[in-house]
Specification:
- α2 (102-117) runs antiparallel to α3.
- The protein is 35% helix and 29% strand.
- The chain is built from 10 helices and 12 strands.
- By secondary structure, it is an alpha+beta fold.
- 52% of the residues are buried.
- Strands 1, 2, 3, 4, 5, 6, 8 and 12 form an 8-stranded mixed beta sheet that branches. It has a 4-stranded antiparallel beta sheet with strand order 9-10-7-11, with helices on both faces.
- It folds into 2 domains: 3-159, Ribosomal Protein S5, domain 2; 165-289, 2-Layer Sandwich (Alpha-Beta Plaits), CATH 3.30.70.
- β9 (248-251) and β10 (258-262) form a beta hairpin.
- Bound molecules: cytidine-5'-monophosphate (C5P).
- Cytidine-5'-monophosphate binds next to β2 and α5.
Length: 297
C-alpha cells in the first residue's frame, strides 16, 4: 500500500519584509498564492526512512535527513511514538531552490502522505503546527489557495480568490539561497528605517475580485532588490517578459525564478514562448492560480 499526495508551488504576490528580528528571522506580510505547478510525494512502507527523487532537477535535491519530506515524516512519527520507517518518493516538477517553495511543498506533502499511510489521524491544527516547525512557507503549502502570512510567514489567514490568474514562470539556471537573499536584504537596508510590513488593501481586493489588471498594479516583492543584487542577470529576464506583454513582472519569493502576470491564457503562451527564445532563462512554464493545497491523489 502507498499514498501519493500532490502539492502546488507558490508565488508571493506581495512580500513585505520588516527589519531583522533578534532571532534572525524577519517579520513579514506575505501574500501567498498557490500556482498549478506540482510535486507529487509518495509514501510507502519500508524498513527504514529513505528519500528518492525523480525529475529534471532531481540531482540538486538532498536525499538525506535534511530533506523537508524526511523531516516531516520524523516529526509526525515522533509525536505519535512510532518509527518513521517509510520510503518517500518525490516526483519533482517545481523548480529547485527557485523561490517557489518546492522544498516546503515536499514537506507538507510528506506530512499528509505519512498521516494517511500510518493512520495517525492528525487534525489540521496539528499538521499546521508541525508545518510551522519545519519552515516558514510549509503551512501555506498544506492549505494552498491564497493566504496572508504574518510572523515568519507561518501564521496564515486564508484569502478568498474570485477568479483565475494566468502566470508565466521563468526558471533560472541554478538556485539562490533564501538565507543569502535575506542577508543581502539586511545589507541593502542597513542604516535605514525598514517600515513595518503590511499587506496592501488594493492587492487583497484584486485577489477577491479576480481582477488581473488591479493585481498587476499591486504586486510587489521587498526581496527583489536583494535577489537582483545577487543575480543581476534577472533584470534581463524581467525585461524580456515585460517586452512580450506581461502586465507585471517580479521575482518570485527569494528567487531566482521570475513571475509574469498575463492577461489571459493566450497572452501567457506568447510570453512563455518569447522568454524561452530570449536566452535569458533556462525554461518558461505556464501555470494558473489559485491551486489547491496538499491533496491525496
Ligand atoms: O523558515 P525557513 O527555514 O524556510 O527559512 C529559511 C531562511 O530564510 C531562514 O533561516 C532565514 O535566514 C530566512 N527567513 C527570514 N525571515 C523569514 C523567513 C525566512 O529571515 N520570515
Amino acid at each position: 500500500m502507498s499514498v501519493t499526495v500532490r502539492v502546488p508551488a507558490k508565488v508571493n504576490v506581495r512580500l513585505a519584509v520588516g527589519a531583522a528580528r533578534p532571532d534572525g528571522f524577519h517579520d513579514l506580510a506575505n501574500v501567498f498564492l498557490a500556482v498549478g505547478l506540482y510535486d507529487e510525494v509518495t509514501a510507502a512502507p519500508a524498513d527504514t526512512l529513505r528519500v528518492t527523487c525523480t525529475g529534471p532537477d532531481a540531482a540538486q535535491v538532498p536525499l538525506d535527513a535534511t530533506n523537508l519530506a524526511a523531516r516531516a515524516a520524523v516529526a509526525l512519527a515522533e509525536r505519535h511514538g512510532i518509527s518513521p520507517d517509510v520510503h518517500l518518493h518525490i516526483a519533482k516538477d517545481i523548480p529547485v531552490a527557485g523561490g517557489m517553495a518546492g522544498g516546503s511543498a515536499d514537506g507538507a506533502a510528506a506530512l499528509v502522505a505519512c498521516d494517511a499511510l500510518w493512520s495517525t489521524g492528525a487534525s489540521q491544527d496539528e499538521l499546521l503546527a508541525i508545518c510551522a516547525e519545519l519552515g516558514s512557507d510549509v503551512p501555506f503549502s498544506l492549505i494552498g489557495g491564497a493566504a496572508l502570512g504574518v510572523g515568519r510567514g507561518e501564521q496564515l489567514t486564508p484569502i478568498e480568490v474570485g477568479g483565475t490568474f494566468h502566470w508565466v514562470f521563468a526558471v533560472a539556471d541554478g538556485g539562490l539561497s533564501t538565507p543569502a537573499v535575506y542577508a543581502e536584504f539586511d545589507r541593502l537596508t542597513a542604516g535605514t528605517q525598514v517600515p513595518e510590513p503590511t499587506a496592501s488593501p488594493a492587492l487583497l481586493a484584486a485577489l477577491r475580485k479576480g481582477d488581473t489588471t488591479a493585481l498587476a498594479d499591486a504586486l510587489g516583492n521587498d526581496l527583489q532588490a536583494a535577489a537582483l543584487s545577487l543575480r543581476p542577470s534577472l533584470a534581463d529576464t524581467l525585461a524580456a517578459g515585460t517586452a512580450a506583454g506581461a502586465l507585471a513582472a517580479l521575482v518570485s519569493g527569494s528567487g531566482p525564478t521570475t513571475a509574469f502576470l498575463a492577461a489571459d491564457a493566450d497572452a501567457a503562451r506568447t510570453i512563455a514562448d518569447a522568454l524561452a527564445a530570449s536566452g535569458t532563462c533556462r525554461s518558461a512554464r505556464v501555470a494558473v492560480s489559485p491551486a489547491p493545497g496538499a491533496t491525496v491523489c
